[in-house]
Amino acid sequence: MAERNYTVVTEFFLTAFTERLQWRVPLFLVFLSFYLATTLGNTGMILLIRRDRRLHTPMYFFLSHLSLVDVCYASTIIPQMLAVLWENGTTVSQARCAAQFFLFTFFASIDCYLLAIMAYDRYTAVCQPLLYVTIMTEKACWGLVTGAYVAGFFSAFVRTVTAFTLSFCGNNEINFIFCDLPPLLKLSCGDSYSQEVVIIVFAVFVMPVCILVILVSYLFIIVAILHIRSAGGRAKTFSTCASHLTAVALFFGTLIFMYLRDNTGQSSEGDRVVSVLYTVVTPIP
Fold first, then answer.
1. Is 129 helix (H, G, I), strand (E, B) or coil?
2. Model pTM?
3. Closest CA to 11 of 129, 99, 91, 90
4. CB of 28 within 8 A of CB of 82?
5. Is 239 a residue whose pLDDT tops 90?
6. In the prediction, which pLDDT does 260 show?
7. What are φ and ψ of residue 93, in 5° steps?
8. Nearest CA to 102 among 180, 169, 168?
9. Parallel, antiparallel, or unpaired for β 90-93 and 173-174?
10. Domain architecture of the chain: domains with CATH
11. Residue 116 has pLDDT above 60, yes or no
């Protein structure tokens, strides 16, 4: 038995949501509908922004990149989730698992940065309207977006290399919707302290920094809105920011729940529900 427990794992078996057979078809249809809404909605958004010259502004420029990233983000996770439900569990190689983990981290990191950039863009538009055109030039917009992609790549590369230097042995079943770091750490048979540190570093230096930029930006925006005398003007300005704040709260709230806590003894059921929120629901436009 001891020898079996230390058999090296070279592939993983994903089994999320397969324990209740009566829910397989309804969940498959729900997740498929979410995926179609994400891909069609975000693709339509990109095409509309590209075709309508009135939307060639910094805000919609950032929104088009966010839509593109959301399509890629959802496409990294949901098709495999559908395969797990359709086949009642699916096997993935370690290389494929690493590739999915890299892409998920890459697109999730870019999402974080883009949401922070969009908050700064709204701050500039509301609080410094006379300087907006001077600050948010085409060159500045491309620089901010390029920085988000480069930082996302670096974060994903470091976390993927660190995570998959672990040795996995014994049970190869992942009762989760995709190859994420918390469930992978449960399967490691060596010391995972350095990998735990990477989780904290990612959480502390990516999410809180982006959240801080967003909170400070919207604090200034709220102050500016309160100084608007017209009730209609206040409502119009706030409505522009409300949808962005809702997406920020849902996306960052679920990521913090997953990454800013101890990964031992977690509830797999709760983790899977939360993971659906930040991988399936938040990319919907």
1. coil
2. 0.84
3. 91
4. yes
5. no
6. 60
7. -70, 165
8. 180
9. unpaired
10. 11-202 (1.20.1070.10)
11. yes
